[in-house]
Amino acid sequence: MINGLIGKKMGMTQLFAPDGTVTPVTVIMAGPCPVIQVKTQKTDGYEAVQVGFDELTKKKLPRCVKERFAKLNVPPQRVLREFKPLEAGKLPAVGTVLNVKVFEKAKTVRVTGTSKGKGFQGVVRRHGFACGSRTHGSNFHRAPGAVGNRTTPGEVHRGKRMAGHMGHAQVTMPNVTVMKVDPDKNLLYVRGAVPGPINGFVTVVLG
Questions:
Q1: What is the pLDDT of residue 120?
Q2: Lesser CB count within 10 Å: N end or C end of the chain?
Q3: Count of H helices and E strands in the chain?
Q4: What is the pLDDT of residues 68-83, one digit of tens each?
Q5: What phi and psi values does residue 167 have, to the nearest 5 degrees?
Q6: CA distance 25 to 115
Q7: What tens digit of pLDDT does each residue of 24-51 get?
Q8: Residue 147: what pLDDT?
Q9: At residue 163, what are phi and psi to the nearest 5 degrees?
Q10: What pLDDT shows up at residue 109?
Q11: 123 DSSP 8-state letter
């Protein structure tokens, strides 16, 4: 068994407890993930399992991709990721299909995804800068202000908070609580929000 799976963010909903408590949850379709490659200490210098997710139905695929999956008797997969085995030496065979049962006993998981892209944004939205006065003849509204410091040092320091591209970055959320596991539909319900848009791919690892 391995310590994680690839999944797809399906959206958010609510779970109701018997006492009426409402918990917002994100629904993740975790698996099925077929094993594509098994890496061992002898062949690769470390132990890992490469799995795939989201079967490709396109007929026009690169020849190398078709040949690789044809040899494995596994349909071509859109996303490939590596995970560590839970126990050294115990690796699943190539072609084994793993599903959400990996998380049946888990209390928390670590979810990694790509955040929503916001495009080019100014300092007010990107970094939460305060706006300048809008009255009394002020022309300073949403500008960042001075970025240098006279002759010394005479340059803009690296890492200065300025306008620029916002979002579309890898975000990892640790210690996300597992609320429910549905093995029949390969669905994992985790508390709160996770990074990325609906139908965005995420990596879920035992926390």
A1: 97
A2: N
A3: 3, 12
A4: 888 888 889 999 999 9
A5: 85, -170
A6: 17
A7: 999 999 989 999 999 988 888 999 999 9
A8: 86
A9: -65, 155
A10: 95
A11: H
- CB-based contact 99:33 (threshold 8 Å): yes
Please tell me what DSSP assigns to residue 116: P
Number of residues that make up the chain: 207
Q: Which residues in the chain show pLDDT less than 50?
A: none
The C-alpha atoms of residue 142 and residue 125 are separated, in whole angstroms, by 10
Q: Kindly list the distances between the CA atom of residue 154 and the CA atoms of 31, 147, 148, 151, 162, in Å, as whole numbers in the listed order.
A: 54, 10, 7, 4, 17
**How far is residue 114's CA from residue 39's CA, in Å, rounded to a whole number?**
26
pLDDT of residue 64: 86
- Cα separation of 167 and 146, whole Å? 25
The helix or strand, by DSSP H or E, that contains position 72, with its residue range, turns out to be: helix 63-72
Strand ranges, E, within the chain: 4-16, 22-30, 33-39, 48-55, 77-83, 97-98, 108-114, 117-121, 164-167, 170-182, 187-191, 201-206
* pLDDT value at residue 36: 92
Q: Measured between alpha carbons, how far is 172 from 190 in angstroms, rounded to an integer? A: 14
Q: For residue 49, with 0-12 CB atoms within 10 Å meaning exposed, 13-18 middle and 19 or more buried, which class applies? A: buried
- Between CA 10 and CA 4 the distance in angstroms is 18
Amino acid in position 139: N
